Predict the 3D structure of the following.
Amino acid sequence: MNVIFWDTETNGLQKQHSVLSISAIKADIEINENKINSQITDRYERFYFRKPNEKIGIEAINVNGLTDDVIKIERNNANYPEYFYNDINSFHLFCSDTKHFVGHNISFDKKYINFGLKHIFCTMKTNTYIIKLKNANGKIKFPSLNETAHFYEIETNKNELHNSMYDSYIAYQIFCKMLGNEKSKGKVMKFLSKS
């Protein structure tokens, strides 16, 4: 079956903030007699400018580095629209043959799209009580993408984190590792069994 792993980088944390980049990896995942085969079959990556008159979200840009100059370089004379809200149908088309969607904190990313996703799997929430990291108050917290990757012994490049394509790929690697982990395998299999 197709599974899409995706991520956005935005100009802030609210729904009204602009999507600056969106990336997705489409993978064919096949399970036969407890053996898992996975192969990336397609990729989607686009960069967009902030909506006209939207102020720069300094905190967000300090994290993702997507200044106007960087976006201009990444777009490289692209022939797709300058703003995400004018191009969302393109991502919808990319997703149209898929029913299963995975992301780290996927509920954040899906608030920026205007179409439904049939089945979603969050590598952040699903791993919260598997990894059991604690915050400063001693309460269990949501693990970051990097913390989750570390738990599954996936090497990450901290300079690449918060790049939507890189984060999509790390989420893909985490998902594949979860299939081989006794604590998480059942959750992944339940998700994949949905039709």
Residues 2-192 form a domain with the Nucleotidyltransferase; domain 5 fold (CATH 3.30.420.10).
